[in-house]
Give the backbone structure.
Amino acid sequence: MGADQPRGTHRRESAMRLPPALFALASALVLTLSSATSAHAQENLGLNYKYTSTSTGDTVNASLPEQPPLNECLLIQQVAELEPGTLNADAFAPQNTSTEARAQIFASDDCTGTAKVVLKPRSSQEPDDVTFRAVKFVLPD
């Protein structure tokens, strides 16, 4: 019996090591899938743009939802608190990536006046010097 006991203990230890190994494997799989999903989601957002962080001075990429409301003026949240005309008070480099609507880009907070640029659906990115504070999505004629 003394010889059987170490073998039983050994089997029990091996069985106890298996769940952490499976847990690690499952965790790695989940991380891999979630990274691929979020990368895919980033490509399919409605309006991509950049803004400058007032706390760090770094350029930050941001997005509006893939299905933004139509005919509503959307103030860009990251610049909403900043006084228009001050340093880094505008978003820039807009890109209408996946909506079926045209994105009208405005310098004003309330989408009044003439749009600075009108982005076609699935347009390429505008240059960094295209600045704006608000956007309105409208269906093409």
Remarks:
- The chain is about 30% helix and 25% strand.
- The CA atoms of residues 102 and 120 lie 5 Å apart.
- The chain has a mean pLDDT of 76.
- Helices lie at 4-43, 77-80.
